[in-house]
Amino acid sequence: MDKRKDEKSPVIADERIIELYWQRDELAIKETDVKYGQFLYRIAYNILHDRLDCEECRNDTYLGIWNAIPPAKPNIFPAFITQIMRRTAIDRYKEKTRTKRIPSELTLSLEALDFEIEYEEDASELGKIISDYLRSLTDRQQFMFIGRFYMAEPVESIARDLGVTASAVYKEIGKLRIGLKNHLERNGVYI
Amino acid sequence: MNSKIIDGITNIDGELIEKYWQYKQACLSKRRTRIKRIVGAAAACFALVIAVVIALMNSIGNNSQIVYNSYGKIDITYLSSAEIVDTDEDFFVSSNGDIYSPEGWVSNIKQGSATVVYGTAKNIKTVKIEDRRGHIWYITTFEIDVIKEINNCDGAKTLTVSSVSRFKGDEPIIDYSMSSDIKIAKKKTGLFILKKNSDDIWRIGGEKYAASDIADYYAMSQYDCDGKSVDYYGTKIDLDDIIG
After folding, report:
1. Is B240 in the A-facing interface, judged by CB distances under 8 Å?
2. For A55, left (φ over 0), alpha (ψ -120 to 50), or beta?
3. Which of A14, A121, B100, B225 is most buried by its number of CB atoms within 10 A?
4. ipTM confidence score
C-alpha cells in the first residue's frame, strides 16, 4: 500500500506550500507529496510507462521544485510542478528510447505527429513558435493539444474531461496536427 | 524519435500550462455537476418507480382484502385499513330514530315497508375505518336468527344485517339513518326494525362498496322484546298489535 494514503496530515493550500519552500522548510516536500504525489506519478507514467522510473522521476522533481523555489513564486503551483516533472521525465524518456521503444502514451501521441523537423535554433525558440500556434487556438483546442502532447493523457481521459466521445477528440487532434505542421513551415521550420 | 518536437513542446510557455490547468479544473467542476444531475434524475426516476410499485402493491393488496363470509357477503374485518372494534355485549349501533307516541309508532310500523322480526343477533362484527378527511366510520354487521316474523318478512330463517355510522371527532355525521354512538347497550335478542339494503354504493375510507354486498338488510332500530310484547320506551306493546 502507498505510504501516502496512510498519512493523515490534512491537505494544505498551495500558497502555504510555496511559503514553506521559501522558508526552506523540508515539510514543503512532504506536503507536495501528500497533495500532488499521485498526480505527478501519473504524468511520469504517461511518459515513461515504468514504475521504478516514475518513482525516481518524482523524487528528482521534488528536488527540482526545492531548487526552483525560491526564487520562483509560481502563480499556479500544480502547473509549475507539472513543467518540472515533464522536463525530468522527458530527459529520462529520451535516454531510454535510445535503446528501445517505450510503450507509453507519449510514444503513442508522438506517432500522430508523424513528421521529422529540422531546426537549428534551440528548443526554447521552437517552444515559442509552438506557443504562438497554441495561442491561435480556442481554449478547448489548447486543452486537447496540451493534454495529448504535453501531459500525454490518453484520448479517452481527455474526452471524459470534455464530456465528448473519444472519436471526436481523435478527429480534432488530427486537425491540430495539420495546423501545427503548417504553422511550423510558415515559421521557417523545415519538415 | 521525434526529439526536436518533444523538446519544442516541453518548452511551451508556462502560462499555457497554467491555462490548461485552469481549464481542466473547470471541466472537472462541470463533470461533477453533470454527474450530480444524472444521479439526481436517476434518483427521481427510481423514487417514481418505487412509488408506482407501492401504489400497485397497495391496489393489489386492497383487492385481495375482499373476503366473503358463508352467506356470500363481504367480511368487513378484512376491509382495507379496518380496525376491529371489540363491542363486547354492547354491539348495536343505533339511535332508535325519532321517538313517537306508542300509537304513532305502531301505526308507522304497520303502514311502513320496514321488515320487523323478533330474533337473536349473532356473529356480530364491528370495524373502525378512518378516511382521508379524518372521518371515522363504524361498520357493524351481524346475522339475526329469526324467532318470529312480525312484518314484511320473506320467510328467511337468518337475515344478514349491517349498520354504518360516521363521526368527525366526537360529532356524528348524520347521513345514514343509523348514526349514533357506537356503544348502546342492547340485548342480543329483541325486536329488530330493518329495511332492505338497496344497490346504494357506500364510499368508506376511500373505497366503494355495494351496500347489498355487505348485508341484505340495514338495521333501523332495536327494542327489547320477550317474544310476546315489545318495550317501547317503557310502554309494553303486544307484538300482535304491530302485525300489519
Report:
1. no
2. alpha
3. B225
4. 0.85
